[in-house]
Write a structure and sequence with these properties.
With 438 residues, the protein is of the alpha+beta class. Helix content is 35%, strand content 17%. The chain is built from 13 helices and 21 strands. It has a six-stranded mixed beta sheet with strand order 6-5-4-1-7-8, sandwiched between helices. A three-stranded antiparallel beta sheet has the order 9-12-13. It is elongated, with a radius of gyration of 25 Å. The protein starts with a helix and ends in an 8-residue tail after the last helix. Bound molecules: glycine (GLY) and manganese (II) ion (2 copies). The site of one manganese (II) ion has 5 residues, from loops.
Amino acid sequence: MYAERRQRLSVRMRDAVALVFAAPETIRNNDVHHDYRQDSDLFFLTGFEEPESALIIAPHRDEGDRVILFLRIRDAEREIWDGHRLGVEAAPTALGVDKAFPIDELPERLPGYLHGATRLYYGLGRDGREAHDQTVLRGLKAARHMRKKGIDTPGDVLDPQPLLHELRLIKDPGALDAMRKAAALTGMGHRRAMAATRAGLRETQLQAAMEYEWLVRGAQRNAYTSIVGSGPNACVLHYRAGSRVLEDGDLVLIDAGCEVDYHAADVTRTWPVNGKFNDQQRALYALVLEAQKRAIDHCRPGRTFESVHDLTVKVLVEGLVELGLLEGEVDTLIEQETFKRFYMHRTSHWLGMDVHDVGSYYLRGTSRSLEPGMVLTVEPGIYVSPDDETVGPEWRGIGIRIEDDVRVTADAPEVLTAEIPKEIADVEALVGSAPLEI
Ligand code: GLY
Ligand code: MN
Ligand code: MN
């Protein structure tokens, strides 16, 4: 899988060299680090998880010298503290690369790999990677000396991300397999959270019940920090789970997903803490659900990314007018963006190795068409601020979002997260069916 991806990249690079570094380690405080997660691009091309590594792809070189990994050498003392290192000797066989060298040798070996290439693909100027930029600039300078001898060296430094990210945008079988697993485990977590719900639980306790489920079943980590918002907290778009206690009559909104083999799921469900939507909650939930289903069905080849959002907004605004939360002509409310009081975020983003995944949304300034193999979220919502005095008090503080992960196919869209209940009757039946006892 990784060799095939490197091959696809090589074909697109032609006579260029690519250099991709590992993610930097980041300090949390003192000598304690944040959890380490490999750079998605490097992992996409190698499956290698160690920090302090870098990959060179040099298709212009001789066979057996085209894919080079630089990595940490074995170190018995450090391995006691940080764990096993693959090491230079084992790397070619373990990872299928042509050669491996100690990472400390990258500066001196880089100029050699630049000889004979006319362009270098390297992402200059990324946060926290200033030392890498220096290594690359020195390498280019050293390589340039060879021009006197009639040897090509790169004159252009290009960002590799447009090339690489177009590859990542269309999910290959390996990516899709991991995404299906992430979706399935995320579903188990959300179902557990629904069943565990009862008044009196803290948001963080619900979070724990959910995350336990996917971690014990094989997810490696969360794809992002879980959002567990109860009552008015459901209206805070970037809320995290906090200490608020769930109350009878609240809705709870969970936006959370796990990561399997570096691929994400991103799912939101909203449900009543007491297992029964009240009239206002039910009306708004039914509207969000209708908008979401219409938008999902719209995710077909040839339709633009933008049109998924436009359709969602239209369905939501029509419904909000019907319910009396908005007044006026639907077209005017859309044109003047009056609806943003209740629906202020976009409907979709790409999903893949990163939760807000890579790949451009526009081509030559216009919204790009959906193509088979792309995966996007569809996540409409309605959020009525607790302080919104333009609506009756019975509507205030209701926050609802429903989010699924959708794969575009040649035909009808495939919802990777379709098994997670979202119909009103299914949600009501599941909520509180196995309450968490603490
Ligand atoms: N969980 C982040 C998002 O839905 O975009
Ligand atoms: Mn989400
Ligand atoms: Mn999302």
